Predict the 3D structure of the following.
Amino acid sequence: MILPVVLYGDPVLKKRAEDIVADYPGLQDTIKNMWQTMYGASGVGLAAPQVGLPIRLFVVDTIQLAEKGRKTDGDIKKVFINPVILSEEGEEWKYEEGCLSIPGIREDVYRQQKIKVRYLDEDFTEHTEEFQGINARVIQHEYDHIEGILFTDKLKPLKKKLLLPKLNKIMRGEVSDIDYRVRAYKK
C-alpha cells in the first residue's frame, strides 16, 4: 500500500526515532509499504518518519540511479533497521539533494564520502558495512531523518532564510508538480 509522505512541518520529522524490536507489529508490511511508497514517489530512499512512523527504519535503492545512467559506487537495495553510523571519513563533497517531504526544493549539501554503518536487515540479521559515494550520501540523508534532521538543517542560515517562504508553503500543504500522496501537519 502506498502511504502518504508527511510534509515539512510535521513534528515527526524533527524527532529522534525510537529503536524497534523484531516483533514490532506489522514490521514486514511496513517495510513492503515503504518500498511501494518510495517507488511510487520516484525516490531512492525513504525513512519511516517520512510516513509518520517515529521508528529507526529506512529503505534505500540506488540501483535505479544506475538504470537512469547515473554513476554509482556499486548499487544497493537494502533495509536498514536501528542503524548506527560508526564512522564518516573522507573529504566532504557537495551534491544537490532533495527530499520527498520537502517537494520542489533541491540544494547543495556537503557530506563526507565514506561511512561505516552497523544495522539490522529485515530478518534482524546484524551487518557492519562500509559505503561510499552516492550510496553513502543516500544512507546519510535517510539516517539524518531518523535522527530528526532534514537536509535543509544543513544549509547556511542565509540560504535557509531565502527558502523560508517556500518551506512555509510546503508546511501549509501548498505543493504542486508532484505525483505522490502527501499529508500536511494539522495543528
About this structure: Strands lie at 5-6, 45-47, 57-61, 77-97, 107-120, 126-132, 182-183.
